[in-house]
Amino acid sequence: MDCSFVNNHADGYGGAVYWNGDNGFLSACSFVNNHAKWGGAVCWYGDNGFLSACSFVNNHADGYGGAVYWDGDNGKLSSCSFVNNHADGYGGAVYWDGDNGKLSSCSFVNNHAKEFKGNVIYWFKSGDIFACTFSVFRPKNTNTVTVNNLIFYEKNNYNVNYYENGNKILNSGINKNITFSNLNRIKIMVQTHLNPW
Hints:
disordered C terminus; 9-stranded mixed β-sheet; globular
């Protein structure tokens, strides 16, 4: 708890933290400029893990998960911020490969995946993403921006609600490109839910 991890490097997993075990907990930690092949800042292997109130800035993964690579069931990632993280593979901020995961109340700003599958989040198994905000930068002299592959779900039985200025503008499938207009320094909210078919 209350740790800072700055300028760390791992050739394999977790540039700053490699967690291998069940029932783990990390809170109020800061991860800046860390690098690894999988999970630029954190690589988490284990069930029932919990990451809370952490910040991830300028982390990089050569493979998946620019900030976090998660492989465990019943994991929770809550109230974290992700800024300027990137992956050469999938999941610019987060790569998730565990069942029943929950990602809530997190903020995402300017994260990127080189392979364009999950510019922010790549989600492989079951779980929920809710109450998260995605800040989108728009070019000068326009109030419209198109977002490509914000969230990529490997399993395609999810729907996504897109909100702009607090109003739902689209209920759609996932892995879509979406255009937001009338932007004036606002945050965009994305909610997902599992469809039972």
